[in-house]
Design a protein that fits this description.
By secondary structure, the chain is mainly beta. It has 1 helix and 25 strands.
Length: 301
Amino acid sequence: MPDVDEITRDTQIAFGTASVFINDERQKWGMRWTGESHFYLLILPEEGDEAISYDLSTDGDFYWPLAPGRYSLLGYHWQKGTEQRRGEVRAEFTVPGTGEDVYIGDIQFRGNEFVLGALIEDKFDEAGSRMAARFPSRQKPVVTRLMTMAASPGRVGGILPPCHETWHVDCADNFSGVTALSPEVRSSGFTDVGTLAPEFRWQGSSRTDVSYDLILYEAVTYTTTGVVDNFTPGRMTAYVEDLSSTSWRPPEALKPETKYYWSVRLRDGDIVSRWSTHSHFTFLIFASSSGFGQWFQFETP
């Protein structure tokens, strides 16, 4: 989705700013010696099955021509040469049906080379001034409706890293948190489980008093080039809390020919871990491919 260039009286704009900081240093996009660098935001309409991808500009300002309705900022796709990183945001916003343009916030991604967290702030004065300069003849009124972070499902009194010593888990073989055993995790692609009622199994904590939550999402598609489909977690289809065993089977059949993402977090009362992920690095003769903090994934026959 490109920014709006030519606007009409009927065009509504959702606008704001997004920026990325690694160890407090703001990141830039463009050509590097390792290849092109792009940071895409992934937006899912409430009734849609395909996410919209937006290639973040170097200045970070965005002006989206969106129809009235509810939207979810699912996350991001960061392409750094051959390296790809994906992460979740789960922020929601609304484009009103009353005709106004809407300011949805300043989105800051902050973290390190492996983990990014999102923070939404109100910087309307600066963003509104830049919008007025970009569209000087614009007379449409503007409302502020900041994105809001979706609440984490279940009881959450505090969150610890998935490899924190509290959990007594073996964070090995590129897994952060529990180690997924079934469905099998691959470095790329979706494992065909061969059934609509797969059993989910994982290697958990050596502590017998730790329990587990499991979450399941349907995958939605998006493209960054307009040619190749990518996938990301979309709508939640199942959430179970406080499992005492390291396995679970859905009570109802899953959809056929559907891709899914899943994860497990550890629980001690109201204290939980972040959701478990895996990472990979594949070295080829002329290139390499890597992914950090990826959800577990599979597909049904």
